[in-house]
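Each letter names a residue; structure tokens follow underneath. Both lines appear below:
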Amino acid sequence: AENASAIEALSSEVTELGTLFDEVAQMVADDGSRIGEIASGLESAASRTRAARDELLKATNRPDGGCAIS
């Protein structure tokens, strides 16, 4: 009877541990998704910044002093 009780308690603890691992796995997956979104946003910002820099360089190299309006 004591062995059966110990086995039941251990089984319950293992089940609880499995639930905790599932929760941690979900948190990691959620964080990974957020990190992906942040990385994508950073890549987009970097691309737009490079494009803006290129446009500024073009403007400063125009013979009319950078004024696009004639």
Q: What stands out?
A: The longest helix spans residues 2-60. DSSP finds one helix and no strands in the chain.
